[in-house]
Amino acid sequence: MKLGAPRVFAAALAGLLLATVPLIAHHEILAKFDDKKPMTLNGVVTLVDWRNPHAHVFMNVKDAKNEVLNWAIELESPIDLGENGWSRETLQPGDAIVVEGWAARNGTRQVWGNSVAVKATGRKVMTVVAKVPPPLLQARPTPRWPDKQPRLGAPSPGSAQGYWAFPSSTALVENGVTAPMDQWGLLKNIADAPKVAPLQPWAQALYLERQRRFLQDDPMFLNCKPPGGPRQFQQPYGVQFVEDRERKRIFVLIGSGNSNYRIIQTDGRTFAGQVGGDDDNPLYYGRSVAKWEGDSLVADTRGFNEDFWFTNGGLPHTDQLRLIEKFTRADFDTLKYEVTIEDPGAYTRSWSANATLRWVAAEELPRFLCQENRP
Amino acid sequence: MRALILIVALTLVSLAGTAPVQAQEGHPLKGSWIGTWTGNKTHGNDVVIVMNWDGKAVTGMINPGTDNIPIKAATLNPTGWVVHLEADGKDKGGAVVSYVIDGKIENLPLPNRTITGTWKSQKENGAFKIGRQ
Given CB atoms, is B112 within the 8 Å cutoff of chain A? Predict the structure, then answer.
């Protein structure tokens, strides 16, 4: 078929739009849906399920045999939809809509909704524009406590809380290595897998298997397992540091997952009785003790369980995992996160990765709870 | 002894029926496994295996708490996820029974993954299948 200029233009525009569809969701969309299988559905809304981690619109669609089938349209989270002005009331049962999206890999009647339009008006609804951090006009000084120690959390007592988000890297890659991947750690070129980290043979094979399966076995996706380890800093809803100086501990509130928290002890305690991990009670976030080295908080974390993926992308770890994390508030708006991974169970040597996060001022963490609609 | 193994096995099976399998995203062999080594007249048809990974070697025990057969050699070849286990037990008369188990991990990404293959000793052999609990 020969395409005329308008069609070529339309196709190019559609391609451009598809390429810029903001994907914010709590997991790799390609794990469940196939971007090589676009489809369009015309039908009538039967139900709107407004729950995290994803809102769903159910619709009746007539097939080629004129039989009515019910389809589920998966959308971004209610949090992201709400921030863009949409609500559970935006669509009502009985509304005629046109959906463009990607078919489910497993052949079920599920579609990732790239576009939802009200048929009568053509109005696009449930669109989500990915948030981007505001440009920094100038570096502001690091906020400090009266004793000059940097504040990792709110800049001053009584001020609005604020939190850290917009990670510069959303999956672990060893420093100095170039291995392009999407925001959920899916490699653009699977041949890069051996470069990502110094994996033991079994761990490399498992990492490859996870990559080949588009990360669909991610326990955070399947069962809302917490994003332990560095993964807590790779999520779309950020983290908040609450410094309890009186009791010498820092709470890290996790904006994604199930709104869990992690405690970093700064009271000088050691790992006595827990060295090598706490076998009786291994944890998703491990046990962290930390001390200040100059302007950096250095945390030593051990005692992880093996029930989760410690980074987007599915690099394996074992219960021998130990993390040395260095947090430095380089200026008011920038948190440097440097992590060294020691795990002789999965890696041939220790290795390091870095990222930065941006300060989100005057906002509380989004109230996201993955388990609202997950087992 | 066999009755005890059967009780342990049935208990594990009943627990598995009521509770979700604990996720295990680390080394694929680590954990408790239960299943059958069909035709084993020496140690019974049912088998329980517990394995661990220390970063260098797989260690473990067959029928812990009952027959206590330590695994003396265990390998996992990630190419095809091929498993090889060797263990020396004893029969009722105290004679050494050397087991060799060869199998392959199936459903690798799932917590209740399985190892399917064969087992053999000096006198017997048969099909082998265990599932992670």
Answer: no
